[in-house]
Specification:
This protein is an alpha/beta fold. The chain has a single domain, classed as Glycoside hydrolase/deacetylase (TIM Barrel, Alpha-Beta Barrel). It contains eight helices and twelve strands. The strands form two sheets. Strands 1, 2, 3, 4, 5, 6, 7, 8, 11 and 12 form a ten-stranded mixed β-sheet that branches. It has a two-stranded antiparallel sheet with strand order 9-10. β3, α4 and β4 form a beta-alpha-beta unit. α1 packs parallel to α6 and α2 packs parallel to α7. The protein starts with a helix and ends in a 15-residue tail after the last helix.
């Protein structure tokens, strides 16, 4: 059985259950316009798939705002502050770690949020994506102080709210093998991980209300990953069980109920 057939079978099971197979896509490490970003946005535009662009505020270049303005389905979320490691040597990279004063991290995050609001206005959603998907619990507790109402990391969430007033929706399938020359993980592995999360949600072994999240890094995608992403968007858009969710609807920001983009028109 091919990988794509396994995905189709799982989506068929969702359709038979009468529930939508909800998906969303988050792209990390953005800060400027360029050919990789344009390629991502064009692939998404072709199938009308919403994209959450996690942007690094301290590195932001004006060209990015112009690129996003041309793509109505892109929403900006915040990728830490400077994507700078503050963890000691020999430990895993972390910008929002316990190895620096929490107040400093919170102040930087608030500063970054102000910049993204200024540059993107209503295209910005108050969702934090920590660099390397790591954040200390004390920083999480202070996210409302920095103006955030959402948190997104990696892996099935343990609870719906990371802190009071801070909802959490994670990604679950990273297309890059970071320890293998940053190559594409491969079609079989990507589909297996996607099907695994979808099945766990359908069976109640993972939170069924947390949409399955696809994680990309447009600067690092190789040709194989680009081809996979295009085929994934096209195939899932053609399946009646699938609903690709907009990040604002996913997080319910501003009391907005979860929404999907069902039309193929851009």
């Amino acid at each position: 059985m091919s990988a794509w057939t396994r995905l189709d079978d799982e989506l068929d099971a969702w359709h038979a259950s009468g529930r939508p197979a909800t998906l969303w896509c988050r792209d990390d490490d953005g800060y400027r316009d360029g050919a990789p970003l344009r390629r991502l946005l064009e692939i998404a535009r072709a199938e009308n798939v919403p994209i959450a662009l996690a942007i690094i505020p301290a590195a932001l270049e004006p060209s990015l705002a112009d690129a996003v303005a041309e793509f109505a389905l892109a929403t900006i979320v915040q990728h830490g502050y400077a994507h700078r490691n503050h963890a000691p040597s020999g430990t895993r990279n972390c910008e929002l770690s316990a190895h620096r004063p929490v107040a400093e991290s919170v102040a930087e995050l608030a500063q970054g949020r102000v910049r993204l609001v200024r540059e993107f206005a209503t295209r910005f959603a108050t969702v934090l994506v920590p660099p390397w998907n790591r954040i200390d619990a004390e920083v999480v507790a202070r996210l409302p102080d920095a103006g955030f109402s959402g948190l997104s990391t990696f892996g099935p969430r343990a609870r719906a709210y990371a802190a009071s007033g801070v909802s959490q929706f994670n990604t679950h399938v990273d297309l890059i093998a970071w320890r293998r020359d940053r190559a594409f993980i491969g079609v079989d592995t990507a589909i297996d991980r996607m099907v695994g999360n979808l099945r766990a949600r359908r069976d109640g072994n993972a939170d069924p209300a947390e949409p399955t999240g696809i994680l990309t890094h447009h600067v690092n995608l190789d040709d194989a990953a680009w081809h996979f992403l295009a085929e994934l968007f096209a195939r899932t858009r053609a399946h009646k069980a699938v609903a690709w969710l907009d990040v604002v609807g996913v997080f319910g920001i501003g009391d907005t109920p979860p929404t999907s983009i069902s039309s193929r028109s851009a």
